[in-house]
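Step 1: inspect the first sequence and its tokens.
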Amino acid sequence: MAKNGEQGLHGVPACSGCGLVVPGGTGGCRAMFDELAVRQWDRPVAYRIRRMMVDTYSLQHPDEFCASAKSLAAHLTGLCAALEHESHPTILRVLLHWLDSGPTLVKPVVPSARGAITLAEVFSAAKGEAIVLAADRWARATWKAYAPLHALARRWVGEALAIPSRPPRRRP
């Protein structure tokens, strides 16, 4: 894997977010992610796994998907929840409620190296359990790269969990 923004073998560009050497560079990486999403229409994965993949991709491509403190908080806490609170049945709703409550957030500096595994591993996985396992490896590698922000992510998740839950909305 090339460093972000560098050329790979034979002049093939690297993605500026994750460093994946792929035709089209950053655009080619995004096209792979979009194609993976389309594939899941025929072979769906659980929402929790899909959300983990979105958070992982977003954290590896923060210039586009984590531009604001709120968007970084959403993806960082989402990945933290996926890996450290997976048994909590409503954690994603709790995090959304917290973000909607308007917490005061200051955006930290994101790591320049964002994980040794890229989307390519999930993209090349056959289907079913292989995709889930590849997505988990990818997420854990990205989470490891974000180690300097773990304490902040855990604090934000703790703040979210401390907010009293609101009753579900009733539809008219």
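Step 2: inspect the second sequence and its tokens, then contrast the two.
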Amino acid sequence: MKKDALKVLVACEESQAVTIAFRNLGFTAFSNDILECSGGHPEWHIQGDAIEQAYSGRWDVMIAHPPCTHLSVSGARWFTEGRKPLYLREDALYFVFQLMVAPIPHIAIENPVSIISGSITKATQTINPYQFGHKEQKKTSLWLFDLPKLHETDNVYEEMMKLPERERQRIHWLPPSKDRAKLRSKTFTGIAQAMAQQWGDYLVEKYGLI
């Protein structure tokens, strides 16, 4: 079986970073989001509901990036202080749970450090962009189901630590704007390439793909 026979869904991804990385390696990958894509390949994008796609029976692999707005640890106080209704957090957790138990053989859920570990199940691993060639800090958790942990590819921690705090935590310090949430959620290209290469290699070996 050829690699392009394996169908990869990249859910909640408008940037298409992971989709393009898998496509570059010969896999049939599609991004999926309620937003239009910004990655330049609308022909590889399914605009619509992620849960509908996850339960469609079409996919062999899913990498999902559920919105972190109501899941992040940093924003938890908005709920404890009563400044946001609890149902928003519960709905967000249920959305993640539905993705985790979708009928897809290989699943990865990606999210910044969040309440998912304490509310559903502990993350498989936590990574940072500086482990994959980017001089930035942003702890990101991965929940992996029949996919291996990622190995760092280019650790630039020492070079990063020579930078001012605001530069190495650029994402955190982005100014308020209508696109801030979208910009903060984009997958770093080094991480996207590691996902495609390492998980792709695992799938090639597992299924004897060519």
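Step 3: confirm your contrast with the notes below.
The chain has a mean pLDDT of 90. The first strand starts at residue 7 and ends at 11.
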